[in-house]
Write a structure and sequence with these properties.
Layout lengths: L8 E4 L23 E5 L4 H11 L6 E6 L12 E4 L7 H13 L3 E3 L3 H9 L13 H7 L2 H10 L7 E3 L6 H7 L6 E5 L9 E3 L2 H15 L6 E5 L5 E9 L2 E13 L13 E6 L3 H14 L5 E9 L5 E8 L7 H6 L4 H9 L16 E4 L7 E4 L8
Length: 384
């Protein structure tokens, strides 16, 4: 029912399925070890993965969910949920601050780049450290073209990409890649592979960009065009504390959802991935984070693809949030990375036996309307 505040509505969910807790949980005294987490986009798949990872912590944290979508939030796994304004509204932060005060929140986990940006820009309003990378880091990483130029200037491997100032620029950009055959066209901002596809000639690129301009309102100048990387796809997620990498895990993406529905054969959503040991990939990612910020704190996720001759190059970085589709794998490794993050954010640094990730092979299998499943390599043929 309405709380009396104009921007927020409180929903007390019953403990059912994966949920837990009662109203009495909110009256318990707060100790130094308690984690009281607010998870945004509650009810989404990304938030569900985060909440399941948080529930694996002992003692289990108190978990509050928030979402502006009153339908999606009905699927939330949190103990208590709030309907809040959209993150892009001026009332969003007021609502979050109200929840922080009401429920003694000491940890906020944003599950998308919009929330990471809003929290980053208003961090001084919060009564505790939001455990985010610097504002400048988040801004740089949310502009893929600016990040690409930043790394090129510092000798960190990235694909060659160029801004599309106008459709007339396309001929000149293609001329720079004469003989390469396939280029990668994408929007410089946004998530979920927005505006991204492979193109083989100027006409394809022009038609693709014009379609997004006319139907989705994305400006031509928001597109980039450059080197297509056909090799293996990696992500490296790491948690940092004052310039020290507490834990980093390398994951290889093996296959994707709905690859038959787009010409590139890839997407931003893996349905099969695995933990790997890739020293060169890890080194590049750690060097990249240190180049951006010499005293980083929080979570940073780096994506890479290999060139035709097998050299990894950074395609983008998501700073201040966990990747939506591999969180379950990060939590299922011998050291739960979400626990490392939550404890560091609330003042406790864990002892981690394998700070550069597990050497054991774990596979993450995901599909629509199915809970994600993690399987060790040794168990792949069990029961078959």
């Amino acid at each position: 029912m309405p709380s009396g505040d104009p921007w927020i509505r409180r929903i007390v969910t019953e403990a059912s399925g994966e949920g837990r807790g009662t109203e009495h949980d909110w009256l318990a005294p707060l100790t130094n070890q308690d984690i009281r987490a607010l998870v945004t986009r509650a009810g989404s798949g990304a938030s569900g993965n985060l909440i399941r990872a948080l529930r694996a912590i002992t003692p289990a944290p108190v978990i509050v969910g928030a979402n502006h979508d009153r339908f999606t939030i009905k699927s939330s796994l949190a103990d208590l949920n709030y309907v809040v304004p959209v993150p892009t509204s001026t009332e969003f932060v007021d609502a979050v601050l109200d929840i922080v005060e009401r429920d003694r929140i000491n940890l906020i986990i944003g599950s998308d780049e919009n929330v990471a940006k809003v929290l980053s820009d208003t961090r001084e309003r919060f009564p505790f450290d939001l455990f985010l990378p610097r504002r400048e880091t988040i801004d740089l990483c949310q502009d893929k073209q600016a990040l690409n130029v930043f790394f090129r200037d510092r000798g960190i491997p990235v694909p060659r990409f160029y801004e599309v100032g106008s459709l007339d620029d396309l001929d000149g950009i293609f001329a720079r890649f004469e003989g390469d055959g396939v280029l990668w066209c994408r929007a410089r901002r946004g998530s979920g592979s927005v505006g991204a596809t492979a193109v083989t000639n100027v006409d394809q690129a022009r038609s693709w960009i014009a379609q997004w301009r006319d139907l989705r309102g994305i400006k031509v100048s928001d597109f980039t065009l450059g080197e297509f990387l056909p090799g293996r796809h990696y992500t490296v997620t790491s948690v940092w504390y004052r310039g020290q990498a507490l834990l980093a895990q390398t994951i290889e993406i093996l296959s994707y959802f709905a690859v038959g529905n787009n010409p590139s054969g890839t997407s931003s959503m893996p349905n099969l991935s695995k933990t790997v040991v890739a020293p060169e990939v890890l080194r590049i990612c750690l060097d990249a984070v240190r180049a951006i910020e010499d005293c980083a704190s929080g979570v940073i996720n780096v994506e890479l693809k290999e060139t035709l001759d097998g050299h990894p190059a950074i395609t983008e970085i998501n700073a201040g949030r966990f990747p939506a589709c591999t969180t379950t794998l990060l939590a299922a490794c011998p050291t739960n990375m979400i626990e490392v993050f939550a404890r560091a954010a609330t003042g406790e640094i864990m002892a981690i036996p394998e700070p550069h990730g597990t050497a054991q092979e774990h596979y993450l299998v995901q599909d629509i309307d199915c809970l994600p499943r993690v399987i060790t390599a040794s168990a792949l043929l069990e029961g078959l």
